DNA sequence: CGGCCAGTTGATACTAGTCAACGGACGTGG
DNA sequence: CCACGTCCGTTGACTAGTATCAACTGGCCG
């Protein structure tokens, strides 16, 4: 297993939510995240240009580093930690539109303002790129644009599934879908997305699949369009039905994948 | 006003849902839709290549021409008519993820299967491109890819708004948001998206803004995650509140934009 | 004319939201 | 050390917003 925290170089003295220093030219060459991210679209020989425009940024847990509606000046690439993306209504209701982990690219938008907010769920490390410079890179490297298009297409597909979930699924179906979407995610986020069905993650003599839930009930609720009470009740119900086992500290073990899959109602 | 049905050439003898003949090399040069679509990313001098790989296709109202889960062999560009895009559950519940009008590009996906279905709402004319050939075009013309990325980014933003709507808005808020999204759409779809604020929202002496609704109540319901009854009741309620006037044959006039906007709850 | 479909409206049911109480984990400070 | 407060999660009682079921209308077309 490679370096679990691939992005640690500089000292961490910063004040505002967003600050930081530019990377060294050779930075990206050794970045463990590159392989999983859009940066892989740039060859070794050109990657120094990318490195030099990347600003190292650290965001503390709970801090909002993209404000919905603020001028969209930067793109971001998550190099460590997890981020929640959301939209909100004036009265405070909010919808989490997605979770972004290591390797995820943020900030795609044609508009000059961010259409969503982003908040760090844990300590997050980011590469920050100005949009202007990023556009130059895209001009010079069409492969980068292709990679972004692929990323956007995947997100679009995910968004469509989420619309089906939010518009048409019941609370039980939503929670089941949510758990299944996360089966196979490594407990250590960002690594090992191989999703090998083989011996899977720690099945052993088969106790079921572990599902890491690095988010609170409130986050799950805001993601599924439910309340925390409903999420809690639904998980409790699944436990009494012996479909899952609820462990300490944000961990759930799926013990009846088959019934969960039926519940989730695979798409037609 | 230019040719309202810019894509009429060949005779219409066809049997299957999808068939058709390849375009003539000069076709795209005169296509009135080109300016509004991804095709504008290709210069006049190169557009013949695109024309030659485009297959003219007509789809009758109500026909599904993209089947969810089917092998994704083609991209489409809508040249006339309106399309609804949707995902469905095995038991028939369905969520319309979007409406696509003239100029809209369909089929973006990395997967080898369509993630959504598409059905003609009226008589639809399409340019159909094989994915393989389209990929060649993208290789040769990075501008095309850039244009597609912009298109995808916009759809992503729209999808996020829709998630907020589906997850967190009440029925009244959903219907209000839906109507407002369509204010300014020309009654004749595909033309005049200028959204000229010129004469204001035509208030003033003013009868209000016309909102064309070329879809049934069932479609609206499936788009908003509601039932047809709730949509009907909500529109009726808005009428009694004098926020809208309901005309014959799928037309609604917004008579109190301001109250509708408050209802829709502008995003934070 | 009769059948069908889209839409409206009413009565009732039910899912999930709201309000509230409680327990455990954790951190702080006496 | 323990008392205290806070945050997160669970559970219960009740409510409200939509869904469901059903009846009815008007338009369209064979």
UniProtKB/TrEMBL annotation, chains A, B:
Annotated keywords: DNA-binding, Transcription, Transcription regulation
One Pfam short name: cNMP_binding
Chain ranges of the HTH crp-type domain: 169-258
Cyclic nucleotide-binding domain mapped to chain residues: 38-107
InterPro entries the record matches: cNMP-bd_dom (IPR000595), cNMP-bd_dom_sf (IPR018490), Env_Response_Regulators (IPR050397), HTH_CRP (IPR012318), RmlC-like_jellyroll (IPR014710), Tscrpt_reg_HTH_Crp-type_CS (IPR018335), WH-like_DNA-bd_sf (IPR036388), WH_DNA-bd_sf (IPR036390)
PROSITE patterns from the UniProt entry: CNMP_BINDING_3 (PS50042), HTH_CRP_1 (PS00042), HTH_CRP_2 (PS51063)
Composition skew (Low complexity), residue ranges: 200-210
Domain of life: Bacteria
Annotated spans, Disordered: 186-212
Protein name according to UniProt: Crp/Fnr family transcriptional regulator
Organism field: Nguyenibacter vanlangensis
